[in-house]
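Worked example

This section walks through a single chain of length 193. The input is the sequence exactly as stored; nothing has been trimmed or padded.
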Amino acid sequence: MKKLILIPPLLILGCLIAGLYGMLHNQISYSVSHDYFDQFKFIQFRISPAFQGRMGASLVGWAASWWMGIVIGAFLLPIATVVPGDKRYFMAVIRAYGVVASTALMTGLLALLYTCATLDATTVGEVMRYGQKIDDPVAFMRAITMHNFSYLGGLLGIITGSVWLILERRRAISTGQQGNAPDALEKIGTDFE
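Given that input, the structure is written out below as tokens.
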């Protein structure tokens, strides 16, 4: 029953983690290509010129990713109910969110490394956004590829986070931590082994 009460705060926490992830991710993206923001994302998200630059990149990152916490939580929270004990459940979900964020980051960074090895001026050509020619199309395409693959990484992270939760259940059972069950119920469970 307590696990049900923990769902709203865990969803809020998932949104905070996803939003903070987006802010951090966009700092990396901004380092790769400021054109990606100046000529695309700041326009798309209607970021005031007063907040453009790294601050604007963080605002875009928050706006573009906080909602992924709901999506990720919608998958992980039901799966996490297999983890015995309320406290262990709570901590397992937080760690699973970390697994998702790590998976998304690694996927995005691997995509960035791949584009650094494969993209150049001859393979990219001219790039336009909102009727403006992009000054550095290679860097722009690297940043956009990293961005897109990070969303894919978030979806892959749901899988790795889910696997982590199932493994956490196995660890809890193998160490004899069956949750918050009264001693009598635990004894009854061992009578049938």
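What to look for: The helical segments are 2-32, 34-44, 54-65, 68-80, 86-118, 121-124, 137-174, 183-191.
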